[in-house]
Amino acid sequence: MLLKLRNICRSSFLLFFLLAVVAFGSQQNIAEAREKSSVILIFNNQAEKYYNAKLNAIAEAELHKKIDTIYIVKDSSAYNDKFKQSHFGDKLEKISEIVKDSGAKYFVYTELMPYHWSENFNFIWHTKKMTATMGLRIIDLERQKEILNKQYSMEIRDETDYFIIGNPSMAKKSLKAVLFKVGEAISAYLPL
């Protein structure tokens, strides 16, 4: 009886192990079957703030979180100098011409526009509002087709009785808020 129980357990274990190997192997095959599309990502900061380096680091980290795991991200360092000025309003042909030799299938162009802010003081309270606006263009380079061309804005408001609200902290908060919207749009519109 004990021997029969041990044989049943052994065969159950072997069956479970075999099913696990087959399931794991098929998951890898599915992942390998989908060829990742290549993307070139450009972030262009036109906000012109003295803390641009911090804003650039935040934006690039957040944008790469949305793209790095699903797509092959091509090196864009060769194109950064070509995008020093604003290109959000440029025609599709002009932008495509700049990155045509990148070898990427898709081009994701994000541009941080200048911030808009307002302040209000009274005897005991200080209020500041800051709006970050980011343009997003997604272009299919192979078909020369624009998938998305849209601007996103987010306003952040902060209040204090200390009379000091820093512009860098407000800029970071509003940038993170608009990056969330842009990241969702990238997830929704950028084809696999």
Low-confidence stretches: none
Encode the helix/strand succession as letters. HEHEHEEEEH
Rg, rounded, reads 25 Å
The pLDDT mean sits at 82
Compute the number of strand runs.
Answer: 6
Percent helix range: 40-55%
Biggest pleated sheet:
6 strands, mixed
Oligomer: single chain
Overall 3D shape: flat
Distance linking N and C termini: 56 Å
The secondary-structure class comes to alpha/beta
Number of helices: 4
Question: Percent of residues in beta strands?
Answer: 25-35%
Produce the secondary structure layout.
Layout: H1 2-33, E1 38-45, H2 52-67, E2 72-74, H3 92-99, E3 106-112, E4 116-121, E5 126-140, E6 145-160, H4 167-189
Parallel strand pairs: 1-2, 1-3
Antiparallel strand pairs: 3-5, 4-5, 5-6
Helix pairs in contact: 2-4
Features:
6 strands; single chain; 192 residues; 6-stranded mixed sheet; alpha/beta
Short description:
The chain is of the alpha/beta class and 192 residues long.
Walk me through this protein's architecture.
The chain has 192 residues and is α/β, with parallel strands linked by helices. Helices cover 41% and strands 29% of the residues. The protein has 4 helices and 6 strands, in the order H-E-H-E-H-E-E-E-E-H. Strands 1, 2, 3, 4, 5 and 6 form a 6-stranded mixed β-sheet that branches. Helix 2 (52-67) packs parallel to helix 4 (167-189). The longest helix is centred in the first third of the chain and has 32 residues, at 2-33. The radius of gyration is 25 Å and the shape is flat. The mean pLDDT is 82.
